[in-house]
Amino acid sequence: MSDDSDGKNPQEEREGHYPPVSFSTLLFTFSSQAAVHLGLLENPLTGKRETDIAGARHFIDTLDLLQEKTKGNLTQEEEILLSSLLTQLKTAFLSQRQP
Predict the structure, then answer these.
(1) Range of 31's domain?
(2) Which residues of 16-50 are buried (b: 16+ CB within 10 A; e: fewer)?
(3) Residue 10 — very low, low, confident or very high, per pLDDT cuts 50/70/90?
(4) Considering the domain boundaries, does residue 90 fall inside one?
(5) CB contact at 8 A, 40 and 97
(6) CB atoms within 10 A of CB 90
């Protein structure tokens, strides 16, 4: 299924706008969402830094679940990445919760 009107395959066009599908990409997607909810990154919809602790907790818990369920099945690089992201996010989460 292609539209040859401009010579490009629609699949190739879509792939140009998205990173390749990988476990690391999935981790970065969840961690970016947590960072947005922690106010570490701007919310792309509002352009503002906003804090939503419940939303951040949801994405951090999702990464914790992935770590638990994939234990022993990741490459060393994936394990290090996941552990590092969780450490950074949990530290930021705890600092948001302290008065």
Answers:
(1) 22-97
(2) eeeeeeebbeebeebbebbbbbbbbeeeeeeeeee
(3) low
(4) yes
(5) no
(6) 15
